């Protein structure tokens, strides 16, 4: 056998050794927990045969605490690039079978390398997280490694899409990288995220809590808003990532992917002409409106379990990706509050960063009142949504369906926040407030002077009708040009698609600045 052939066989042997990570016993232990290995996850995510791996032979450099005897090729993370539906992506998958996927200086270098490469070529970065945290044996070098990753998350933000999947432990400093990325997807029952674990919580606060209660997928998807998706299993996590990628561009210089559709642009939906209830306080389901106007009724929702009084997500209209932001009258009457404002603002800013036009569907009676909201900074959170719409330079089309009152009217992509096309249904009410509140303020003295409660009620009803006739319709706003047209609900799909087609060549830039100072 020639020396060259021996060396080739040696290479093949080393590759086989690297591919089994921490060994078959640890792979089996991973499977027993209902979890896949790092390489299995990458194989599920990427198109078959497309994965090109980097740094398979890298080793850590730590000799403390006997770590020189715990060497594994690749050192706890698998990195490289491949394609999803034929489009380039970079990926890293932490390998829990190697030192619990703990982050070493070397492991961080591997992740940083693919992030740097992704920035150079303009492709999304996908992180599959399953790690015990910082490698304690490496001390400050592990912390420096995390910091290097975080810096790249920050610099890549708004340049290339970043997606994080949490498929196991993610605690301490490790949580900040997913928090800095655009979308976080968690797996129920096998993943968790928190800064300090249950043991520390009990020691410091005396509070007994499980890992799932403290930082499980359902908690972060519904209560904290840290997770955008909570999936039932790893297969669903991977499918969610692949679907998400189908709506978004490769980078901030590209347009979103176009998908031809057989759904006619001029399709009408007669049911929309009767969807608004006669009673102004009766709810209806905004999902029915969305499903009626998007291509093939398909809507990919983001943050579905969090702040349900506002709906955000992606759809296609005329084959092109649009971001949709819509108030939901079925939940808290569609009011805005701290969480819904933050949820909406985050989504609008992502769409603006990546050239995705936004359709805003408005039915909002105002902001949620009360001390809890004020103490939690509803002013600042509402300002975030206002700021996001105001700075956005992408095409913006707004349709007001029913209520649009006061400050909430302003923050939901009104004309003065550079809304490009603002339509309204004939059922729209655009005013400072509803007639009940307005009459109580405008005619307080007259109502107080009434001789009897019956007389006051009669006066109040007459003044309410007068106010409704004047303001509780879209025509007053249209008379000032704040509404571009009042449209028949059944034609909403066609009018919106036509508007976005007209706006496809829109060019708008903001004043030159180092960066903005978003109200945080």
Protein traits:
2-enoyl-CoA Hydratase, Chain A, domain 1; 7-stranded mixed sheet; 520 residues; 20 helices; 3 domains; elongated; 17 strands; 8-stranded mixed sheet; single chain; alpha/beta; 39% helix
CATH architecture of the largest domain: Alpha-Beta Complex
**Low-confidence segments:** none
- Beta fraction of the residues? 15-25%
Number of E-state strands = 17
CATH fold-level topology of the largest domain: 2-enoyl-CoA Hydratase, Chain A, domain 1
Average the pLDDT over all residues and give the rounded result: 92
Dominant shape: elongated
Task: Please work out how many helical segments DSSP would assign.
Answer: 20
Which bin fits the share of residues in helices? 25-40%
The CATH superfamily of the largest domain bears the name: 2-enoyl-CoA Hydratase, Chain A, domain 1
How large, in whole angstroms, is the Cα Rg? 27 Å
Report the CATH C-level class of the largest domain: Alpha Beta
Instruction: Report how far apart the termini are.
Output: 67 Å
Overall tally of domains: 3
Main β-sheet: number of strands, strand sense, barrel status?
A: 8 strands, mixed
- How does the helix and strand content classify structurally? alpha/beta
Question: Can you give a write-up of this model?
Answer:
The model has no long low-confidence stretch (mean pLDDT about 90). α16 crosses α18 (about 455-470). The strands form 3 sheets. Strands 10, 11, 12, 13, 14, 15, 16 and 17 form an 8-stranded mixed beta sheet that branches. Strands 1-2-3-4-5-7-9 form a 7-stranded mixed beta sheet, with helices on both faces. It folds into 3 domains: about 5-245, 2-enoyl-CoA Hydratase, Chain A, domain 1, CATH 3.90.226; about 270-435 and about 475-505, Alpha-Beta Complex (2-enoyl-CoA Hydratase, Chain A, domain 1), CATH 3.90.226; about 435-470, no CATH class. Helix content is about 40%, strand content about 15%. The chain has helices spanning about 5-20, 25-30, 40-45, 105-120, 140-155, 175-180, 200-205, 210-215, 215-225, 235-245, 285-295, 340-355, 370-375, 380-390, 405-410, 435-440, 445-450, 455-470, 475-480, 490-500, and strands at about 50-55, 75-85, 85-95, 125-130, 160-165, 170, 185, 190-195, 230, 300, 310-315, 320-325, 360-365, 395-405, 420-425, 430, 485. α12 links the parallel β12 (about 320-325) and β13 (about 360-365). It contains 20 helices and 17 strands. The protein is α/β, with parallel strands linked by helices.
């Amino acid at each position: 056998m020639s020396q060259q052939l021996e060396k080739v066989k040696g290479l093949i042997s080393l590759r086989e050794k690297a591919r089994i990570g921490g060994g078959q016993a640890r792979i089996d232990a991973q499977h027993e927990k209902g979890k896949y290995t790092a390489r299995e996850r990458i194989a599920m995510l990427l198109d078959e045969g497309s994965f090109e791996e980097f740094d398979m032979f890298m080793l850590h450099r730590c000799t403390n605490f006997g770590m020189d005897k715990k060497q594994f090729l690749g050192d706890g993370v698998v990195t490289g690039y491949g394609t999803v539906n034929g489009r380039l992506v970079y990926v890293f998958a932490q390998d829990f079978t190697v030192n619990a996927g703990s982050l070493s200086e070397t492991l961080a270098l591997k992740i940083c390398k693919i992030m740097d490469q992704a920035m150079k070529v303009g492709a999304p970065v996908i992180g599959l997280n399953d790690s015990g945290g910082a490698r304690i044996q490496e001390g400050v070098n592990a912390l420096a490694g995390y910091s290097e990753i975080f810096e790249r998350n920050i610099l890549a933000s708004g340049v290339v899409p970043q997606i994080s999947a949490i498929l196991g432990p993610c605690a301490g400093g490790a949580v900040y990288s997913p928090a800095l990325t655009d979308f976080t997807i968690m797996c129920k029952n096998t993943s968790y995220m928190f800064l300090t674990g249950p043991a520390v919580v009990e020691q410091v606060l005396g509070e007994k809590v499980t890992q799932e209660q403290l930082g499980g997928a359902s908690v972060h998807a519904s209560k904290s808003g840290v997770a955008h998706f909570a999936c039932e299993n790893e297969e669903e996590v991977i499918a969610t990532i692949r679907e998400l990628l189908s709506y978004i561009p490769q980078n901030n210089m590209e347009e979103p992917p176009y998908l031809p559709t057989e759904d006619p642009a001029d399709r009408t939906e007669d049911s929309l002409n009767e969807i608004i209830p006669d009673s102004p306080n009766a709810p209806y389901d905004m999902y029915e409106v969305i499903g009626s106007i998007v291509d093939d009724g398909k809507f990919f929702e983001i943050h579905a379990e969090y702040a349900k009084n506002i709906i955000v997500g992606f759809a296609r209209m005329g084959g092109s990706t649009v971001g949709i932001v819509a108030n939901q009258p079925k939940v808290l009457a569609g009011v805005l509050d701290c969480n819904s404002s933050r949820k909406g603002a985050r989504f609008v800013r992502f769409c603006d960063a990546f050239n995705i036009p936004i359709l805003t569907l408005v039915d909002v009676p105002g902001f949620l009142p009360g001390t809890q909201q004020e103490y939690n900074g509803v002013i600042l959170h509402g300002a975030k949504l206002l700021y996001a719409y105001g700075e956005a330079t992408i095409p913006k089309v707004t349709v007001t369906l029913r209520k649009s009152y006061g400050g909430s009217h302003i923050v939901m992509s009104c004309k003065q926040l550079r809304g490009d096309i603002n339509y309204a249904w004939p059922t729209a009410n655009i005013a400072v407030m509803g007639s009940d509140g307005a009459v109580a303020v405008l005619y307080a003295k007259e109502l107080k002077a009434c001789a009897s409660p019956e007389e006051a009620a009669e006066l109040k009803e007459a003044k309410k009708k007068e106010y409704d006739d004047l303001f509780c319709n879209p025509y007053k706003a249209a008379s000032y040009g704040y509404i571009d047209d009042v449209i028949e609900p059944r034609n909403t799909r066609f009018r919106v698609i036509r508007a976005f087609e007209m706006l496809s060549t829109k060019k708008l830039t903001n004043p030159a600045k180092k960066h903005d100072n978003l109200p945080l």
